[in-house]
Amino acid sequence: MVQSSVLGFPRIGAQRELKKITEAYWSKKASVEELLAKGKEIRAHNWKLQQAAGVDVIASNDFSFYDQVLDLSLLFNVIPDRYTKFDLAPIDVLFAMGRGLQRKATETEAAVDVTALEMVKWFDSNYHYVRPTFSHSTEFKLNSAAGLKPVVEYLEAKELGVETRPVVVGPISYLYLGKADKDSLDLDPISLLDKFLPVYKSLLAELYSAGAKTVQIDEPILVLDLPENVQKLYKGAFEQLTGEGLPEIVLTTYFGDVRPNLSAIKNLPVSGLHFDFARAPEQFDEVVAAVSDSQTLSVGVVDGRNIWKTDYTKASALVNKAIEKLGKDRVVVATSSSLLHTPVDLANESKLDPVIADWFQFATQKLDAVVAIAKDVSGEDVADLYAANAKSIKARQESSITTNPEVQKRMATINESLSTRSSPFPERLAAQKEKYNLPLFPTTTIGSFPQTKDIRINRNKFTKGTITKEEYEQFINQEIETVIRFQEEIGLDVLVHGEPERNDMVQYFGEQLQGYAFTTNGWVQSYGSRYVRPPIIVGDVSRPKAMSVKESVYAQSLTKLPVKGMLTGPVTCLRWSFPRDDVSQKVQSLQLGLALRDEVQDLEAAGITVIQVDEPAIREGLPLRSGQERSDYLNWAAQSFRVATSGVVNSTQIHSHFCYSDLDPNHIKALDADVVSIEFSKKDDANYIREFSDYPNHIGLGLFDIHSPRIPSKEEFVTRIEEILKVYPADKFWVNPDCGLKTRGWEETKASLTNMVDAAKEFRAKY
After folding, report:
1. Is 430 found in the same domain as 396?
2. Which of 400, 435, 460 is the last residue of a domain?
3. Helix, strand, or coil here: 676?
4. Quick one: average pLDDT of 90-106?
5. Which of 400, 418, 450 is the last residue of a domain?
6. Would residue 707 show up in a list of annotated catalytic residues for this protein?
7. Residue 709 pLDDT > 90
């Protein structure tokens, strides 16, 4: 009998229960007991759901109140000193590391003011993890005060009658994905492995004592370009983690091709290996050959990153190839990765076109997929399931929904001229200086302002039809005017309209483009309590009419200062959607570039001559390994952006924005934007920006963390700017936040922006 396995399940709850209770706890509207109880309820539901579906191997410890990597930092006492001074409860330490904490002293609580740890993208996904931060004084130990979370949750499932396989990020990946604290910049975190392994081993021993016979250890860095010294660590490390009194280990990799690092894990003393064949089927023959006679192979054939229905016949064919080589008792049918990256349940989508909905599987439906495939290759009769699946696959392939001849005809017009500005940057800069006459250290924001409860209520009323279109537009115009007047009042130089009409930076545009489908409850965690509803690209993309011109023109009519037109770039629209899997991402990105080109030109024609086309996902989409695929990606990603932005005159200033990724100047040079803004507030080393000192165009450096509620003082901004000016020229430096202010409240937004502008004015006086 071939077993079925799920590497992890979404933890947010089908109706975003985790978000609601977490934010209630942060705002002191829920107790810690209520928070923990809701977490326990979500976990129980997930385990029972998988058990009822017939999944054989169910993960535990896949739940987190914030981030699974941050959980390990708390568990292993990797807690920078600044969080240990305030006698916080463990759950509050976790949240302080994840999002910062700032509160005034009360009769029962001491004052706290501490910034968050750095947050970056989890490989090439839109999930963000909190980067572990190490120092020479890091003392690894099991943090008993926080509770041994993997053990607690394993026992919790066992009490419910569900035997689970605990999942833990592996020791080498955990260290490799971390960074050194600013006071220990000479430290290479991977050098701490010998100190870390005994503590990691003690966790495994605790799990074994609790009854766990097998654990899933995730080593996702095996799909990266690993230096030889890191590859060599695997053998010795896993020899230490196996033996008497310890559980068996299934080593898992995902998101890519492990072959360049295959020698690192060949013949490791682990009981099983898992590989992602949804993302990298080309590795099949070599990795199967590397499975030893004593190991099982977990075949990841159900995609954990996308929502398209698994082709059961193709999946069974691949699994059967593994069975031919290894036998049924040594093969497991699995999801390619955790299902964290997919929405919870397609059954909650009552408004989707049923024709299109038949093409999808969300996390709950993917449980059925792994079970069906496991039954089929085991010899059970699932003919009806396979016939229905084949019918769905064929219907999508033959659907007219996926093809637009006009779009395909226009794609043939893309050439170098279409994707090149009419003049080089120095000529454009001269025209822009004459037009805008901006001061030194020009100030701006990234786009969105707080999405208040009032905005959400009115949007909901309009969606439900309880207010008219005219009433809703009047409300939106009032919100825009409020944002414009505030920006004028505090002295910002280049304004934004605040985006009150937008539900999400990708969904808003997707809803106005042909070729997209949308969900009602298709939420996916991006970080912490920030969830997104990725739209789904189902066909060729085009723009029937203007999408953002009306609001931008209204905002500009209210002020003499320049107001930026705000758009989301083609690569980000692609990456933050669920993309098609039947045409290349290059084709989809260029289609989006053409659609946005029309919007950029309409904005310019309407008098909006500062236009920001955000591309925060351009680094995220970078192939995980160097080589031709990465080079090709950078070429078509930059071309897509330039297709969107190159049809404007020299004096129209094109901005772009990037956040929460490790950027290389080469990733942005090819865009040829006039101004780019990048996340910088959580970078401990100002020398990071030195890499950009030769970048010819202008850069706005994000000076405060918009994902944290804390308010930086003016003095904090001044200190940060002074550090930057040691390595970066003042005449190319724009001043702005890290990202949009959508998730923040008005009080903290006003205070933070006021302090930021005041700091910029101080430096203008100096320079």
Report:
1. no
2. 400
3. strand
4. 93
5. 400
6. yes
7. no
Give the tokens for residue 160. Answer: 């419910």
Per the CB < 8 A criterion, the answer to whether 724 and 733 are in contact is: yes
Q: Model confidence over 504-530: pLDDT tens digits?
A: 899 999 999 999 999 999 999 999 999
Residues 669 and 756 occupy one common structural domain: yes
Question: Which residue, chain included where needed, has tokens 């036998």?
Answer: 327
Are 461 and 516 part of one and the same domain? yes
pLDDT single digits (tens) 224-254:
999 999 999 999 999 999 999 999 999 999 9
Domain assignment present for residue 557? The answer is yes
Tokens in use for 735?
């001043």
Q: Which range of residues forms the domain containing residue 258?
A: 3-77+118-400
Whole-number Å distance between alpha carbons of 713 and 717:
7
Residues 455 and 345 in one domain: no
- 629 annotated among ligand-binding-site residues: no
Token representation of residue 466: 């309880």
* Contact between 657 and 615 (Cβ < 8 Å): yes
Dist. CA 595–CA 607, nearest whole Å: 19
Beta bridge pairs of residue 610:
564, 653
Mean pLDDT of 451-473: 93
Distance (Å, rounded) from C-alpha 518 to C-alpha 353? Answer: 9
Q: How far is CA 125 from CA 304, 337, 573, 640, in A?
A: 11, 12, 14, 20
Q: Could you tell me if residue 96 is inside a domain?
A: no
CATH number of domain containing 217: 3.20.20.210
Residue 499 marked as a ligand binder: yes
CB burial of residue 385 (10 Å; 0-12, 13-18, 19+): middle
Mean pLDDT score, 434-442: 96
CA 8 to chain centre: 17
Write out pLDDT tens, residues 19-65. Answer: 999 999 999 999 999 999 999 999 999 999 999 999 999 999 999 99
Provide the token pair at 412.
């043939």
Q: What is the DSSP string of 361-389?
A: --HHHHHHHHHHHHHHHHT---HHHHHHH
**Is 103 contained in some domain?**
no
Both 202 and 256 in one domain: the answer is yes
**Is the whole-model pTM more than 0.90?**
yes
Q: Is 747 annotated as a binding residue?
A: no
DSSP track, 548-572: SHHHHHHHHHT-SS-BEEEEE-HHH
Q: Is 739 annotated as a binding residue?
A: yes
Whether 288 and 167 map to the same domain: the answer is: yes
Give how many domains the chain has, as a whole number.
2
List all residues 6 or more positions away from 236 whose beta carbon is below 8 Å from its beta carbon: none
User: Does residue 657 have a known ligand-binding role?
Assistant: yes
